Amino acid sequence: MALRNKFIISGLALSTLMIFGCSNDAATELKATPPVAEKIPYLVKSPHGDRNDPYYWLRDDERKAPAMIAHLEAENAYYDAYRSSYADLTATVEQEIIGRIKQDDSSLPYVKGDYEYSTVYEAGKEYPIYQRRDLRVADAEPEVMLDVNELAQGQAFMQVSNMQVSPNQQLLAYMVDPTGRRQYELRIRDLTTGEDLPDRLQGLSSAIAWAKDNETLFVIENDPQTLLSTRVLKHNLGQSAAQAELVYEETDNTFYMYVSNTKDGEYITISLSQTVSSELHILDADTPNAEFTLFAPRERHLKYSADHIDGRWIIRTDMDAPNYQMMQVSHADIGDKANWQPLIAPSDDVFIQDYEVFTDYLALNERSDGLRRIRIVPWQDPAAAQVVAADEQAYVMSFERNVEQATDTLRYTYSSLTTPATIYAYDMTSGEQQQLKQTEVPNYNASLYSTERTWAKADDGTMVPVTLLYKKGFSKNGTAPLYQYAYGSYGSSSDPYFRSTVFSLVDRGFVYAIAHIRGGQEMGRQWYEDGKLLNKINTFTDFIDVTEHLVAAGYAHPDKVFAMGGSAGGLLMGAVANMAPQHYRGLMAHVPFVDVVTTMLDETIPLTTNEFDEWGNPKQKAYYDYMLSYSPYDQVSVQDYPAILVTTGLHDSQVQYFEPAKWVAKLREHKTDANPLMFKTNMTAGHGGSSGRFARMKEIAEEYAFILNLLEAK
User: Fold this and answer.
1) 146 - beta bridge partners?
2) pTM of the full structure
3) Which residues in 449-590 belong to E strands, given as ranges?
4) Is 105 noted as a catalytic residue in this protein?
5) Is residue 416 among the annotated active site residues?
6) Per-residue pLDDT tens over the stretch 5-20
7) Which of 133, 220, 489, 524 has the fewest Cβ atoms within 10 Å of its own Cβ atom?
8) Catalytic-residue membership of 500
């Protein structure tokens, strides 16, 4: 009987796909009968009790099972049939969004060694072209290093995730992902001929580090099942992949790993990190056959990173500093954190996000009052530190590419919800700055829009910052539709940088809101601590409280509230859907992490073991019970739900496709409303969706059209 039902699913997929040759009446009939997944009993075992998961069969680690594929295709066809009625609207929004992209654009060039490097996009092409110009030759024409459009020919997906030029500037090492699974292949191009060498290594992370001999590369091999970065390999040019030498293996499966060069190129580093701990190993780039040296042993609740300059290491660490402090140590004294000397004292109010090291200055990217700013600290007189000024209420400053240490010029990017990304050159000696480039946004006029910061009171009295965007002339009379976004996990902050896509909503009267909820790090490290582990529910209630605040304050109509989140933000959408469905007209959940307990019980799934300090380990009863209490899949109940659009990628390595597939199936079984529930699987992509720049815009247009169609139907 079970086998027969699976074939029924396959038949549904086939009949649904045929609908595009059918009449509108047939399409309407199909819309009324969404795909129904078969229920097959399956016990998910745990030390704290077993749970029946009747949709577990949708999981296939090989991503090939015919019944599973048929079900996903049936869902895709069901969604295609549904959205066919507003196809013109989708096309209009897509044209608007693409119309705000300068198609023939280029990045701000930067100089490294004898070359000036830049990235170019050509009109109509999906992918970047990486090029450089030889500064030793007068009026030299740019030479193409890598044209990703050529790599992508015949491929449904193509991503170049990392590129590193050799110290002698003659070779380019780059990492290619042709599936979206984030499992990379190392390729090496001879820049003097434009041809790739025969060297190929597969199953890698995106990390690359060059030794100074221009013949030795360090990369990281992933575990083939968990996809965890586990083994550092040393590859010598001309040797086979099998000859790559293992130089470091990480046995603690809660750590991520990365290899890179220090900015000055003097050292190769192995960086290991997990939620509450980190460790660094270093190797002189002149001696690639030597052993790596431990910078400082890992300790529970000690995180640090370091960069090298002039024989000393500059360290960012949370040692005795939840919001981080800056320290230093001479190269001769590495190996013991007791030798670290203080540079910049920690603050209760300012969180140190990032840093850049220069010969005469230390540049800090900090968070203060939820905003990212830049502070310049002279080595000779730290008390004379200066904060780079900003004029808007809500903005974000971040470091641009700074490749030289022996300079007094810092490049940084300024952006806000109304100001496109603008790159400045800041003279750290005089404080003077020069605008170098602002992203050109066709069909956009900044003078038509306003951004502001408001604060919502959470149910425990905490004030949650919210950044808003709307058209000038907007009146807080409670009639506007609202599009509310948040993430709220991993200490990842949702900064108010410019997003050209949202103007297709804002121009139609929407208020766009970013809720800086707990679980991020906008307000410092404690903001993160208050939104993870046994405090995770604060993330969800903060989001709901922001919605209630914006409606009560007149920013939005209570029946016109839409919300979006992706990945861990998709978990947020799932939790909100269960906890407060009445507040939302529609929810958009992209690659959502919704099956929390089952996933965290399974250590063969990528990311599980790395994230016990983020979500908790459900093998411990306190965490099991708490996670179960909010897990969206487990908490689906018989009730009305908002309209929901769910998306995923079949090859997703971060959140497996079967989580949203199961969640949608369970929602279909339990929901008591007639609101649309749509599920789209990108069959040729992973966590980030389509790889081409226009293909990504098409996906956003589909989401916005889904919202606008709901609004018009109200």
Assistant:
1) 130
2) 0.91
3) 449-457, 463-471, 482-485, 511-515, 561-566, 586-590
4) no
5) no
6) 322 223 333 333 333 3
7) 133
8) no
